[in-house]
Amino acid sequence: MTSPFAPFSNLTVVFQVPAGERTTNTTGNPEVQTDSLVCMAHGRRETISNERRRQVVATGAELSQIAVEGYWIAPSQAPQSLAPEQTGPAYWWRVDSTFKLPQDGLNDLTTYQAFVEANQSRIVTEGNFVIAASPPNPFGVAEILGDMFQGYLLTKTLWADAL
Q1: pLDDT in tens, 95-125
Q2: Which of 56, 75, 87, 89 has a 20 to 30 A CA-CA distance from 66?
Q3: pTM above the 0.85 mark?
Q4: Is 65 exposed, middle or buried (0-12, 13-18, 19+ CB in 10 A)?
Q5: How far is 41 from 45, CA to CA, in rounded Å?
C-alpha cells in the first residue's frame, strides 16, 4: 500500500546499513560490510531560533541546522538497523504539479544517482541528514502513513562564494 503522503515526498536520504557480513580490512581490524539504502520521505521544516541554527565553521562559511520531521514513504517502515544519530547525504526537493519524486521510491543507488543528475535544478537544499531517535507510533497507523521520523539537516553555506 502506498502512503497518502507519497505525492508530497520532498526529501531523499542515502543511509549506509549493515549487510550482515563481517570482514577484516587491510590493517587487520574487523569491519562490517554495508549497503546503501535510498530513503524517500515527506518532511516538514520546524522552526528553531537562529542562535541554535547557525554555527561558524570557518571564515566565510557557516553550518546551518534545519530541524525536520515527517513520514517515511519508501521504505515506509524505518529499517531496524538505522541507529539514532546516523547520518546520510540528503537532498530537499522542490516538488509541484510539474515535478514529483517517484511514488514507489528509488530502489538502488545507481538509479538514484542518475535521477539526481537529471534533476539538479529541482534541488532546494543539499546536506547531511541526521536521524533522531523516533519512537514507534502507539496508534498502529505506521503501516498506512509510514513511520514518523525526526532529525535535522546540516547544510554548509559558503558566503564568500556569493559575494
Answers
A1: 998 899 988 888 889 999 999 999 999 998 8
A2: 75
A3: no
A4: middle
A5: 12
